[in-house]
Amino acid sequence: MTTDTKSPYTQFFTLMNSKLPDEYKAVLQKFQEHGDFYQQLINNVNNNETDLSKFWDLPSTLGFNTASNPQTKWLQSFFSLNNFQSSTDTQLIQQFTQAICELPLQAQENLSSIQAALSKLNQLYAKLSQSAMKHFQALKDESPDASNEQLCIFWLTAGEKAFSEISQTDDYINAQKKLFESLNNLKNTQHAFSEQAAELFGLPTQQSLEDLQNGLHKLRMEFAEYKAQTDEVINELRQTIYQLK
Q1: Which are the contacts of 144, defined by CB distance < 8 A and separation ≥ 6?
Q2: How many helices (H) and strands (E) does the chain have?
């Protein structure tokens, strides 16, 4: 039995196993994931599954899935600092260790707020999934002979309608606001600790580096302006000398 080299699946896997740059392979991988998702949706619909709400579960659906994304550097460093342990008895390390021990206490309120906001959002996402499933079923009932392509359109339409309804509620807006504010406060706590640790070890703080960078930028701008003025004066002098000849 010969393999159909013109088959889309064969061509796809040939590309994935080729010397195609990794960034392009990542895009193709996303296409495959989306295709698998829609295929699973269609299979569940054709099998008359009663609960399709999982297909609108925002935290784990298609592009909303961020579990595999790397943490930002500031968040990684925050938790790394909390795991720091020292085996020395020097005064400097003792001060640093004490600062680390105090850090969770300073951030505890922020972490609790983040947890509360995420819990509230999860409840709202559960409502969204149920609402989207009802909208999808209504669209499907109106078109009992819908094609697979139409079913995928119904999925998107139902999800957008449900999200539009949920996202306009005060509960959703307040939960999102609380989450962003708490994350920002947690980041500020980590930043303040980094500045304190830098001063403790006699290292330049982030603020001093930013001030230096701004100063250098201002100096470059002033030099460029001075050079432009100087070039203009030199050009005028050359013209004057040429006229005097």
Answers
A1: none
A2: 7, 0
Q: Is 71 inside any structural domain?
A: no
Beta-carbon contacts of residue 159 (< 8 Å; ≥ 6 apart) = 56, 132
Q: Could you tell me if 142 and 123 are in contact, meaning their C-beta atoms sit under 8 angstroms apart?
A: no
pTM strictly above 0.90? no
pLDDT tens profile 182-197: 888 888 877 777 776 6
Report d(CA 210, CA 224) in Å as an integer.
Answer: 21
Tens digits of residue pLDDT in 76-115:
554 444 444 444 444 545 655 565 565 666 677 777 888 8
Domain that holds residue 222: 204-244
Q: Which residues, 6+ apart, have CB-to-CB distance to 166 below 8 Å?
A: 124, 127, 128, 131, 172
CA distances from 163 to 127, 131, 166, 172 (A): 10, 9, 5, 10
Q: How many CB atoms lie within 10 A of CB 34?
A: 13
Domain check: are 180 and 108 in the same one? yes
Measured torsion, CA atoms of residues 46, 51, 54, 55, in degrees rounded to the nearest 10: 30
